[in-house]
Amino acid sequence: MNKKKEEASRTTRWPIILAGTMLAMSASFMTDAKAQGDDANKILKAMTDYVASQKTLSLKYDSDVEVVTPDLQKIQFTSSGQMQLSRPDMIRASRTGGYSDVEIVFDGKQLTMNNKDKNDYAQVDAPGSVDQLIDLLRDKYSVMAPGADLLFSKAYDVLMADVVEAKHVGVGVIDGVECEHLAFRNMDTDWQIWVEIGANPIPRKYVITSKALAGAPQYTLRIKEWRTEVPADVFAFKPPQGAKKVALGDLVDIDEIPHGAVTAAATTGEKK
To answer: What is the mean pLDDT of residues 22-29?
Structure first.
């Protein structure tokens, strides 16, 4: 073969070799991504099954909700609270922040919202399960509680309903506890969850990032003091001394974000 033919042959082979290498790399990447997604789905499913299997739960938490002001300053509001749950139809949850101190009590028949700062409360009939209550609060009363996604009896289906990508990021440490770090994406939000490693795969941290809003504000929930003992009488509401019963629409200043503190701001919402 003369020199010109050798050069022509070499020139022809290089694109073929390069294309083959790129295809191999692409296949390897896709296989790795699928493995990560399968691992993430498996860990999340184990966590949601474990949480759903707990007939009673008691936990404390800290939460952060971010807003983005019209001049693109990001501001974070922080609260703490606790929650007791008895499946399928009883829950008591409180949230205390710098601007509100509120709780909800649900006994399977009636919902009570108690504004401790104003010493007033409202009650409405709401027969059903905790699952139905979460939907009712969101759809009828516009009470957004992103962490409530984790409490559904079929939380895996709810969380994964619109996921387009799942990833097992690796291992993280939350409050000294080793956790599996998972990341998921859908069209409007990214969300992450840290699941305790071991016999009790409970969620330790949950972060929702709103991609559709300027500045990508986040909601963060950190769970602590997870227990399974709940007193039977905790779901009976007893009005505080001097408390006034009002219509639900008359309760004011019960949100995590103080009214008027950030005008026309974009805030994080629920995952879905």
So the answer is: 55
Are 192 and 206 within 8 A, CB to CB?
Answer: yes
Angstrom distance (rounded) from CA 163 to CA 183: 10
Residues 92-120 as b/e (b if ≥16 CB within 10 A, e otherwise) read bbbbebebbbbbbbbbbeebbbbbbebeb
Q: How far apart are the first and last CA of the chain?
A: 66
* Spatial distance between the Cα atoms of 108 and 152, rounded to a whole number of angstroms: 15
Question: Can you tell me which residue has the tokens 């290498």?
Answer: 21
The whole-angstrom separation of Cα 233 and Cα 150 is 24
The tens digit of pLDDT for each residue in 67-95 reads: 988 888 999 999 999 999 999 999 999 99
| pTM of the predicted protein model | 0.82
**Per-residue pLDDT reduced to its tens digit, 151-177:** 999 999 999 999 999 999 999 999 999
Q: What is the predicted pLDDT for the residue at 132? A: 95
Is 51:59 a contact under the CB 8 Å cutoff? no
- Could you please report the per-residue DSSP string of 2-48? -HHHHHHHHHHHHHHHHHHHHHHHHHHHHHHHHHHHHHHHHHHHHHH
Q: What superfamily does domain 54-267 belong to in CATH?
A: Lipoprotein localisation LolA/LolB/LppX (2.50.20.10)
pLDDT tens-digit profile of 129-145?
A: 999 999 998 888 877 67
Is residue 174 a contact partner of residue 204, using CB atoms and an 8 Å limit? yes
